[in-house]
Amino acid sequence: MSDTSKLRTPNSKLNLAERDKKVIWHPYTQMKNALPHIPIVRGEGVYVFDENGKKYIDAVSSWWVNIHGHAHPYIAQKVAEQLNVLEHVIFAGFTHEPAVLLAERLLPILPGKQDKVFYTDNGSTAVEVALKMCLQYWDNKGKPKTRILAFKNAYHGDTFGAMSVSGRSIFTDAFNSLLFDVDFIDLPNEDNISDLVAHISTLTNTACFIFEPLILGSGGMLMYEAKYLDELIVACRKAGILIIADEVMTGFGRTGTYFACEKLVNKPDIICLSKGLTGGTMPLGVTTCTDEIFEAFLSEDKLKTLYHGHSFTANPIACVASLASLDILLQEETLANIKRVETKHAVFLQEIKAHAKVKAVRQTGTIIAIEWETGNETSYLSNLRNLLYAYFLDKGIILRPLGNIIYILPPYVISNADLDYIYGAIKQALEEI
Ligand SMILES: *Cc1c(COP(=O)(O)O)cnc(C)c1O
Fold first, then answer.
1. How far apart are CA 158 and CA 200, in angstroms?
2. Does residue 96 sit within a domain?
3. Domain with 309 in it: what CATH number?
4. Is the pTM of this model over 0.85?
5. Best mutation site among 28, 64, 66, 274 for ligand 1, i.e. most ligand atoms within 8 A of its Cβ?
6. What amino acid positions are annotated as catalytic residues?
7. Which is the closest atom of ligand 1 to the Cα of 159?
8. What gap in Å lies between CA 286 and CA 118, rounded to an integer?
9. In the chain, how many domains are there?
10. Most exposed residue of 309, 334, 354, 355, measured as fewest CB within 10 angstroms of its CB?
11. Ligand 1 pocket test: which of 214, 275, 400 has the largest number of ligand atoms within 8 Å of its C-beta?
């Protein structure tokens, strides 16, 4: 018991990046040739600061989660207060004010009529729950359906169910043989919409259609029009297919409206939320559904229960962070900031769209994506991402290109000056790289 020799004490001769390298395995990182990870010591607004005091603009909202800026004092205060009251309690058999209040405030602002909230702890698990709700819905109704419809380049998370309904890519390559079979369709456009609708009308064993509304994030910020998504949803409803909107990335103002599905006439049965939910402060996931779905699980028969839950389901601190983030989101000033970013992006888009190195540029709300022209040189393409990443870091901007696609996805509080600085750096990169 008193053997302390195994306790690892930090080696004082090493700096933090060196200590990190000895003990940490980072996400989405080939550790063999990874550059040293930059130690961040503090955040404020759109900035994070490294241990040498260098300031970085967080132009990707720390993997798309941060919407109001770092270390927001209001969120911090609410979280601190809650920590002294109740940090966590089992959510089966017990409940608490922050979870109930968050559901009460969230449901009325969601697109369509959403009636119940199921809590999880991240985006992938919010998706897992949505898929289970749909598959078991049909099973509980005595009409089992086993297939799922999704988009080819979709990204819905990294757990096995979420991976299965995501497009097959280098991310899934090692697991493809174990992923369940999914019907993948192309993104809808003017040319293919009638074929897609015809295809959907032939589906008889499909439980649900899951999609990222208006923009496929990890797939390369691929955008498509609400009116075609509406047509797909109508076709699905006719074929008895439930509708899941994965708003994990698009939720909470990212696309210009509070939720991307506000732009649809036909609303989803189920909505998945995470990322911006807590303002990017801590992990929390939510899957909401209609009473129609919920009621299919009400029964004297135990087998009709949704047997799913996570240890930290509905964590009170995360719920309080979400309530604080909602307070800020619903302020007029935040909506004005969202519109301001949207307008600035649109002007920048016009400025660069004709540049010879710009293959395509597209925008949805506060997200702008620029596709670099790489010609046929695959060697150039494979180096380009790392070149661009390092180029912007050097200039104090965190941008993480998806291959040859650079995107800006900033916290809404970003200033015009910081946006102009990022635009300027991108223009300079277009000349220099
Ligand atoms: C990030 C993301 C997820 C997964 O969320 P995690 O919290 O990273 O598990 C799911 N769906 C979409 C659309 C996402 O962008």
1. 27
2. yes
3. 3.40.640.10
4. yes
5. 274
6. 28, 155, 246, 275
7. 9
8. 6
9. 2
10. 354
11. 275
